[in-house]
TrEMBL record:
Pfam families: Metallophos
Keywords: Hydrolase, Membrane, Metal-binding, Transmembrane, Transmembrane helix
Domain of life: Bacteria
Similarity comment: Belongs to the metallophosphoesterase superfamily.
Name assigned to this protein: Calcineurin-like phosphoesterase domain-containing protein
Cofactor(s), names only, from the UniProt record: a divalent metal cation
A GO term, aspect molecular function: metal ion binding
Species of origin: Nonomuraea polychroma
Protein's UniProt keywords contain NAD: no
BP GO annotations: lipid A biosynthetic process
Single GO cellular component term: membrane
Length: 440
């Protein structure tokens, strides 16, 4: 059902673009047919990209397919926004055409001045016996057209001024030009943002019952790295380098590390073994770990070999300056369908409730259950901050927090925008981030 809905939406978006970019900008003929088939090809490209990346058939279609998907989204967005100005402009142009058509009838006709009457001059009448006078005229020579010259009718057609552009074509081409320029500029900026260095966000969180000795404990929080067909090993190396530069006490990787199997992406994850922190690096599953063709279990094992400890519905004690902090982690909600869902009771039960607890949970929506178990702070990802504005408005309908720090049901929740991207290598209004979070 999800696949059918997705394909239906993509098909509808391409039809709308065909209507606005092809039918409204061209007349019947070869050009319209060629552009129509081009639009069909782009639809097939998008579907093929999703099928190919999910089945790990190679990354040949990934770049053009995902970039076109971003352009498709912003073209549709710009055209929808321009529908009202386009309709208003059409009304004014129709009125102008009516005025021009009515102008000759409204202008009074000028009376022509009477032509003077000509009085015939007297003509001498010759005698009937006189011979008629015949004047000889020079014969008129007809010059044949030069060999290869175009007939007069064709020359006249070439000299004739072109027909004025119709209102429909003018509005269609003007709207397409504005939408195309807007979409290209937006996607170009978004690619630069997505492929650039993540932003370092520094956040201080005050926990009322935190042991004063734990004040200053620092977490490097990163999520949604999304190792996949569009990222290389350098993407992981850069994130590891940035995290190590923060000199954090704890590294928290809050899900959606990969978009593929260990066989395909294992080499891209290898730099994670170089992560540096005082008390270790920890990981919880995100929804994309459960989409892996090789299964989520192989990534749990792989990360363990890289020195990153998965917290699978469990908790550990972080001892710092003689005080203890409980660090817990729960599996993602998508693991439920594979018998690997979150278990808050297992992760948070039978603990000393006088100690502060930090919970790693991929989706912010899991905060409701966290509140029932007395969690002080939840660290999450999943949302990408919307990734491509204005998707943040849609994400806000699903999750209680889109990005940043907020309080939900008495629990403070910090949601990172993530250090990577999913699908199109584009981020608009939500730059990638690595967070340095300090407890107080």
């Amino acid at each position: 059902m999800v696949v059918l809905v997705f394909v239906g939406l993509i098909l509808l978006a391409h039809y709308y673009l065909w209507h606005r970019m092809v039918r409204s900008t061209t007349g019947p003929g070869r050009l319209r047919k060629a552009l129509t088939w081009g639009m069909v090809g782009l639809f097939v490209l998008v579907v093929g990209t999703f099928v190919g990346t999910r089945m790990e058939l190679g990354s040949g279609l990934a770049w053009p397919g995902y970039v076109w998907l971003a352009l498709l989204f912003y073209l549709v967005l710009f055209f929808v926004v321009l529908e009202v100005p386009r309709a208003v402009a059409g009304v004014f142009l129709r009125r102008a055409e009516r005025k021009r058509a009515a102008a000759p009838e409204l202008t009074p006709k000028r009376k022509r001045a009477p032509e003077p009457e000509l009085t015939p001059e007297p003509v001498a009448v010759l005698a009937s016996t006189a011979a008629p006078v015949v004047e000889e005229t020079a014969p008129v020579e007809t010059v044949p057209p030069a060999e290869g010259a175009a007939p007069v009718e064709q020359v006249a057609e070439k000299i004739a001024p072109p027909a004025p552009l119709s209102r429909r074509l003018f509005l269609g081409r003007a709207t397409a030009a504005v939408a195309g320029l807007g979409a290209l500029s937006t996607v170009g900026y978004g690619i630069t943002s997505a492929l650039g260095d993540p932003v370092i966000e520094r956040v201080k969180v005050t926990l009322p019952k935190l042991d004063p000795r734990l004040g200053g404990l620092r977490f490097a929080v990163v999520s949604d790295i999304h190792l996949g067909p569009l990222t290389g090993k350098a993407h992981t190396e850069r994130i590891v380098r940035m995290i190590n530069g923060l000199e954090a006490d704890v590294v928290a990787i809050v899900g959606d590390l990969v978009d593929g199997s260990v066989a395909e992406l294992g080499a891209l994850a290898r730099p994670l073994k170089n992560l540096e922190s005082r008390y270790g690096a920890y990981f919880v599953t995100g929804n994309h770990e459960y989409f892996s063709p090789g299964g989520f279990a192989e990534w749990i094992e792989e990360l363990g070999q890289l020195g990153v400890r998965p917290l699978r519905n469990e908790r550990v004690e972080i001892r710092h300056q003689g005080a203890v902090l409980d660090l817990a982690g729960v599996n993602d909600l998508n693991g439920t369908s594979q018998g690997d869902g979150p278990d808050f009771g297992k992760a948070l039960g039978n603990r000393d409730t006088s100690r502060s607890t930090v919970l790693l949970a991929h989706q912010p929506v899991q905060v409701g259950e966290a509140a029932r178990h007395g969690v002080d702070l939840q660290l999450s990802g999943h949302t990408h901050g919307g990734q491509m504005a204005p998707f943040s408005l849609v994400v806000g309908l699903q999750q209680p927090v889109v990005s940043g720090l907020a309080t939900v049901d008495g629990v403070q929740v910090y949601v990172t925008r993530g250090a990577g991207f999913w699908g199109p290598p584009v981020r608009v209004g939500a730059p990638p981030e690595v967070t340095m979070l300090e407890l107080a």
